[in-house]
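input
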Amino acid sequence: MYYRVLPLSLILLYSAFVPAQAQAQQKETAQQGTAVIDRFRQGLTNTVDRSALWIDSLFAEEVDPADYPGSYGSLSLSPVWDEHDGFEIDSSFRANLVFPHAQKRLSAIIGRGDFDDFINDSQLDRPTVIRRSQADEEWMVGLGFDPYVEADQSLSFGAGFRGGLDLDTYVRARYRFETILSDASEIRVQSVGFWRDSDGFGIAQTIEHERMFSQRWFNKFWIRGTFAERTEGVRWHASNKLYLMYHPERAVGGEVWWYGETREEVPMLDYGVRALHRSRFMREWLYLEGWVGMHWPRETISDTRTPRWILGLEFEMLFGN
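output
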């Protein structure tokens, strides 16, 4: 009897010990992973702040890092599968450098992403599938001067370069106006004139409208038209999103979008719909967004416009103040 009970006891002891050990290892691994994320974010923030402090020191005899307000920005990574174009990983980075000794009228931006978003100083969350080509997804550096900034309008000038060692230079002037239509509605209008070495002169016009239907329902519509020497007529994007905030840190939404160029062989190049879910993830500065949808691309007259599935995730990390 003893010899029968002993093996059974060992088995029970082992079965209790192994899961506990596995849970402890999983917890330790999670803590290590979290620590890596925290260290990475802090290192990125420190690097951007040191760069801003060095530039700001050119406008003052002495700069105290303790009094520095800190720069800010975002980093995102988006693996996306599109039935039309296959699998790709999209990424964007944007850092806004603050210079207090330049009387906060001088600023700098370092980033990687779409040129239209960069000169408009916006990221309108359009689906990755309508980011036309990877040629525009390049590193850019810009210096801005803001001579007029008020609560409802601002005027800004900037210059910089994109394309890495190619040094594709640009200059731009941007005017932004916003007004409250009602207690639950707001509209913003922005005009940007620009020139860049590779494409000549251009102008971009953006209109955004936001409306709160209730404390939980929120709608955002935007449309942008861009005309430049490199475009076939006017390149335009439009999008409408409806969100349901079912939790202070989580929301579900639906979106419909359109994209085209007026003088292309096919003026309506793409349109689609998608359902999405966005929430905080692990940290208050880390966000996770997932979506599934369908779009109808068509590039030439001979193409047949057929529905194509899209799936995607986006990890977004905010850093700085």
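quick obs: The chain has two helices and 14 strands.
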